[in-house]
Write a structure and sequence with these properties.
It contains eight helices and no strands. The termini are far apart. It has one domain. The longest helix is centred in the first third of the chain and has 47 residues. The protein is mostly helical. It is elongated, with a radius of gyration of 25 Å.
């Protein structure tokens, strides 16, 4: 019982971490690039604040919706495969038993144990189907609330990330001056974010951190340059 609880906790933490990474990385980069681009075109920070807030709201909703749809797709796919497995267990039980035996053969059980274990599993249809889902298809039952949780996690992470590059514009009326503080704050946050992301994913931490920071800087620099060009 303790092991099962630990596994579920681990999976939930992994899902949360993935959502935060998706939301925060875009939340830091996109509003930063937008603010930098607008700074190249206008000198009034209030315009950038309005546009930035609108972008953060729209981006949070769009990213959250993307997370929700991904979660729903995962749930629908699992339910579809589950229904198919129940039908196969009812219509072609002998073939399904052979597939179970093949699994036990691959992990090195003797012929006698293969048959015994297969018959034992096949006595309970629900257990049988769950076994096939996990070991034949490699599918675990998704959290039914996963889609909603993912939408909230990604949307909130995006909004938190987006406020960081925009915050200096709230207090400094000159957009060029505000951009300096925005760039410093955002690049530091991107570096820290990249560091922890790399540490968790097993990528070399310093190169991973600099890579994330460089992507944000290039996006903002490109937006700023294009705005100056067209201005």
């Amino acid at each position: 019982m303790h092991i099962t609880s630990h596994d579920e906790e681990h999976l939930e933490s992994s899902d949360l971490l993935r959502d935060v990474v998706i939301g925060m990385s875009d939340g830091l980069t996109v509003p930063f690039a937008l603010a930098a681009g607008l700074t190249g075109a206008v000198s009034n920070s209030s315009i950038i604040v309005i546009a930035g807030i609108a972008e953060i709201v729209a981006g949070s909703i769009a990213m959250g919706l993307g997370g929700y749809l991904a979660g729903k797709t995962e749930q629908d796919h699992y339910n579809s495969e589950l229904k198919r497995e129940y039908e196969e267990v009812d219509k072609v039980p002998e073939r399904e038993k052979e597939e179970v035996k093949e699994f036990f053969e691959k992990i090195g059980l003797s012929e006698e144990l293969q048959t015994k274990a297969t018959e034992e599993i096949a006595q309970d249809k629900k257990q049988w189907v769950e076994f096939m889902m996990k070991f034949e298809l490699g599918l675990d039952a998704p959290d039914p609330k996963r889609a909603t949780k993912s939408a909230l996690n990604i949307g909130i992470s995006y909004a938190i990330g987006g406020i960081i590059p925009l915050s200096p514009y709230f207090f400094i009326s000159d957009s060029r001056e505000a951009l300096k503080f925005s760039a410093i704050a955002t690049l530091i946050c991107l570096f820290i974010f990249g560091y922890f992301k790399s540490k968790i994913t097993g990528v070399p931490v310093l190169s991973g951190a600099f890579k994330v920071m460089l992507i944000g800087a290039l996006a903002a620099g490109a937006a700023f340059g294009v705005a100056l060009l067209f201005k």
